[in-house]
Amino acid sequence: MTATILDGKAASAAIKAELTERVAALRERGVVPGIATVLVGADPASQLYVGMKHKQSEAIGMNSIQVELPAEATQEEVEAVIDRLNADPDCHGYIVQLPLPKHIDTDRVLERIDPAKDADGLHPTNLGRLVLNVNAPIHTPLPCTPRGVIELLLRNGYDLKGKEVVVVGRGVTIGRSIGLLLTRREINATVTLTHTGTTDLAKHLREADVIVAAAGVKHVVRAEAVKPGAAVLDVGVTRETDPDTGKSRVYGDVHPDVAEVAGFLSPNPGGVGPMTVALLMTNVVEAAERVSA
After folding, report:
1. In this predicted model, what pLDDT tens digit does every residue of 81-108 receive, in sequence order?
2. Active site annotation includes 97
């Protein structure tokens, strides 16, 4: 068996084409969706990631707002930027690029974001509303990467209803929040969350119809632990530096041999990553549509 590849680049391109039409419709009503990023310091990886988001946003007609602060910026200076974006009517959603410098209280910064402008969908208020399964009177932005995982499966014709899903990793960004999305009535999957305290990971994996690997542990999921025909989504990232060349290489959580067993497999990179950016833009466009309604 050779797995069908869940191509995140193709699916994200389709989403961006749809967003382009929605942005054009908003512009006709005099509303230009605005996405902002806050970058503190000059980390090359963060600069690359932020630049990619703005390039893609501008390509679909959105307004791009980039705020850059030096690494030595104070807590007060960072929070002043947050307050400004919260009050800016041209900014419909934004993110603070992580990690922040060690002298900055990250939790204080993230909690200061207006929940309605939380483009990542990870503000404590929004996660709490997701737990309570409430979406009115305030719309709740959904976490981008978990939403991207589900959208990637749905756009490839995969029906999650009744499926046994095993999530590897309990981080807030993916592990904890994706279970909340998958168990909503419109999805209706059954979710098992595994982590470093799980005594027999392989046992859980072998029973899964769907595996979401988000532990950040190189090749933690191998073929012998995957049920034939299962859908496997590789979300975790491990970076290793080659001691000979000094170059960094990215590895996923899923070993390449899984492709010979799985029915569906998302590559890493090229799978869920592009979906995260597409759903980030979706959250911002949705916020602009609410403003214009």
Report:
1. 999 999 999 999 999 999 899 999 999 9
2. yes
Residues 48 and 167 in one domain: no
Decide: 77 and 69 in contact? Cβ < 8 Å: yes
Contact 103, 127 (CB under 8 A): no
Alpha carbon distance 91, 88 (integer Å): 6
Task: Tell me which residue of 119, 50, 152, 59 sits closest to 281, measured CA to CA.
Answer: 119
- pLDDT tens track for 106-131: 999 999 999 999 999 999 999 999 99
Catalytic residue among 16, 56, 97, 117: 97
Q: Is 159 part of the annotated catalytic residue set?
A: no
Write out the H or E segment, with its range, that includes residue 164: strand 164-168
Question: 16, 53, 117, 163: which is the annotated catalytic residue?
Answer: 53
198 in any annotated domain: yes
- Residue 136, pLDDT score: 63
Are residues 149 and 268 located together in one domain of the fold?
A: yes
Share of the chain above pLDDT 90, in %: 86
What's the pTM? Answer: 0.93
Catalytic residue among 16, 117, 118, 120: 120
Does residue 285 belong to any structural domain of this protein?
Answer: no
Q: For 162-184, what is each residue's pLDDT tens digit?
A: 999 999 999 989 999 999 999 99
120 included as an active-site residue: yes
Residues 160 and 95 in one domain: no
State phi, psi for 5 to the nearest 5 degrees: -80, 130
Instruction: Find the domain containing 60 and state its range.
Output: 31-115
